[in-house]
From TrEMBL:
Domain DUF155: 7-94
Full protein name: DUF155 domain-containing protein
UniProt organism field: Rotaria magnacalcarata
Similarity comment: Belongs to the RMD1/sif2 family.
GO annotation (BP), single: positive regulation of mitochondrial translation
GO cellular component annotations of the record: mitochondrion
InterPro entries in the cross-refs: DUF155 (IPR003734), RMD1/Sad1-interacting (IPR051624)
Domain of life, per lineage: Eukaryota
Length: 98
């Protein structure tokens, strides 16, 4: 009876189990790629959180019928930043093909 060995990630510990050298290399590549994508996603989420805070504050002020004073061109700049972020995500993940 053959026992299957699989590589695992548990509690921030990656275990690459004894397999052939090619399988070990593929597992290492898979884990490193997943970690890199996770970091990239974290950066995008942080950037998006900043933009969402700005928009949410404006939306709340509008709901309360408060006067909103915005610097000339700020809304266009914020809109451009959001489109730029969307473009970077689409290019990096190929989401524009779906």
């Amino acid at each position: 009876m053959e026992v299957t060995t699989i590589s695992t990630l548990n509690n921030d510990i990656i275990k690459i189990n004894c397999q052939s050298e090619n399988e070990q290399l593929l597992d290492k590549y898979t884990f490193s790629n997943a970690l890199a994508l996770s970091v990239k996603l974290g950066i995008w989420e942080a950037l998006l959180d900043n933009e969402v805070e700005f928009v949410a504050d404006l939306a709340n002020r509008l709901k309360q019928d408060k006067h909103i004073k915005i610097q000339h061109g700020l809304m266009q700049r914020k809109s451009g930043e959001l489109y730029s972020l969307k473009h970077a995500v689409n290019l990096s993940h190929g989401m524009n093909e779906q």
